Amino acid sequence: MRDLAFVLASCALASLAFGDSVELPTLVHSPQSSPFNVLGGDLALTTPTVCVVGVRGADGLALNQGAVESFELRSDGWTYLQRLQPSELAAGDQFGEAVAGDAQWMVSSATRHDAAGVDAGAVWIYRREGRFWQGAQQLLPGMGSDGARFGSALALSGNWLAIGSPTASSGGVVTLYQLVGSTWQFDRTIANPSPAQGDRFGDALALTSDRLVVGDPFDDTQSIDRGAVFVYEHAGRSWTLGATLAPSSSSDRQYFGRSLALGASRLAVGANGADASSGTSASGMVEVFDLMGGVWLRSAELRPDTAVVGGHFGWDVAMESSTIVVGEPGFGAGSAVPLVGRSHVFAQTAGGLWTLEWSLQAEFPAAQDVLGTSVAYASGRLVVAAPGRSGQAGALMSIDLNADCDGNSISDLLQVAADPALDCNGDLVLDACQPINCDCPSDLNGDGVVSSADLAVLLAQWGNYGQGSADMNGDFEVDAFDLALLLASWGPCP
Fold first, then answer.
1. What is the pLDDT of residue 10?
2. Is residue 428 part of a domain?
3. Is residue 181 assigned to a domain?
4. Does residue 183 lie within any of the structural domains?
5. How many domains is the chain built from?
6. Does one domain contain both 200 and 328?
7. Both 388 and 458 in a single domain?
8. Are the C-beta atoms of 214 and 195 separated by less than 8 Å?
9. Which CATH number do you get for residue 180?
10. Which range, of 379-383, 392-396, 415-419, 436-440, averages the lowest pLDDT?
């Protein structure tokens, strides 16, 4: 059994019936993993098969210069590609606090970088060349930006890049850059439209080519830290404030706008401080808005199946079409195993209602895992971070919710949930879809004999830090231990 697996806590589809748990074993970690690295404080799927991850504590507790690491999904699991650390970094910069990107460009920030002032911040831009990211440009705020934390939030879409400075002296600002040729050029600064002490305009961002959404979870316009979200429309050369959104409740400290996910005509807003009831302080919620007739209308409120005190449901949110993924990193607060965290997947039915499809958590939870601190979702691929795992070294989990390897129109995940015997090695790939002999795990090609052909499979996967068929001892690395197991089984399978 894997050291870190998921339990499927809640799921249902059509008439399938199954047990209450499923092991989801895909674990991704850094080959340079060490305590206090905090892998996964933020992450982004730049494509469904490329994930970039912030490691803001890299260099250990003493330096914390930070780093960004890149992973690629292949047929045998996630493979580590590279670590990025700009030469300009200094101790305490925490590069990797925020990341964003697409198939061509990736951006990451070090919000405590001091080149433009103490904790003014800086952002680095990378271009993808083949499989790897190459440094292209550094962006700095204006001189004298002490404490602005430029880069606390990042959003990139097409030729536009938005950078949040939520602690700038004016109650927070957002800076827009536009891609001209191969260079990102300053376009404009968008100021907080209703600045007040303690505001954090730009603490969360979401962006498309024609729309920018800015979160200020500490907005006090109607009540203390109730939060607000500002929607800007792009036409011609103008970005115009088109709507200001507020949570459905007027209570204090909802932090509405803590997280954002934007589609063509849909917006999901996390309010991690919202209370489901008087006894569930900061259980959190996500509010969904749909654009209808040019007006943003509140269409749903999403909550976990069981609201818990300090769960902070809505700390992060991701969305694609009719699927919304929500992180709840505070789940377990006050329990014997505090802050284990979990994440949730909601789907919209044909009738327009939102239903909770999955609630995912660690099968062997550890205190301070804070699973769900950051989430990403693209084309059915879900990646969830647990930055507190293993002494804050951090880890990622990834599953494909849409996988249907046997083509029967039923998710492989649901089939395994209904009958675990269909997946004897627990890799969430149906045994019928892969050469596998669970009575002879060293027979990697399924021909009934452990031979040089299996040795070739193992060597081809050597050093794989994801889940691969040659990882026979379940430590998420194909190495000498797996080689020893294969050699010990040499010859015909029993």
1. 32
2. no
3. yes
4. yes
5. 2
6. yes
7. no
8. no
9. 2.130.10.130
10. 415-419
Tell whether 174 and 220 lie within a shared domain.
Answer: yes
CA 482, CA 415: separation in Å to the nearest integer?
29
The residue-averaged pLDDT of 140-168 equals: 97
In this predicted structure, what is the pLDDT of residue 2? 27
* 35-52 per-position pLDDT tens digit: 999 999 999 999 999 999
Q: State whether 196 and 277 are in the same domain.
A: yes
For Cα atoms 313, 315, 321, give the angle at the middle one, nearest 5 degrees.
Answer: 85
CB neighbour class for 394 (10 Å; exposed up to 12, middle 13-18, buried from 19) = buried
Structure tokens at 262: 């934007």
368: which 2 tokens?
A: 């301070």
Residue 439 clears pLDDT 80, i.e. is over it? yes
pLDDT in tens, 48-90: 999 999 999 999 778 999 999 999 998 777 889 999 999 999 9
Q: Are residues 442 and 402 in the same domain?
A: no
pTM summary value: 0.86
Retrieve residue 17's tokens. Answer: 């019936």
Domain co-membership, 399 together with 443 = no
The span from the CA of 50 to the CA of 104, in Å, is 11
Contact 107, 127 (CB under 8 A): no
Does residue 293 lie in a domain region? Answer: yes
Per-position b or e across 219-238, b if 16+ CB within 10 A of its CB: bbeebebbbbbbbbebeeee
Query: Using an 8 Å Cβ cutoff, are 93 and 110 in contact?
Result: yes
Query: Are both 338 and 439 inside the same structural domain?
Result: no
Q: What is the pLDDT of residue 350?
A: 87
Largest CA distance in the chain: 74
Phi, psi of 26 (to 5 degrees): -70, 115
Domain extent at residue 465: 435-492
pLDDT at 418 over 80: no
Residue 103 has pLDDT above 60, yes or no: yes
Q: Do 383 and 440 fall within a single domain?
A: no
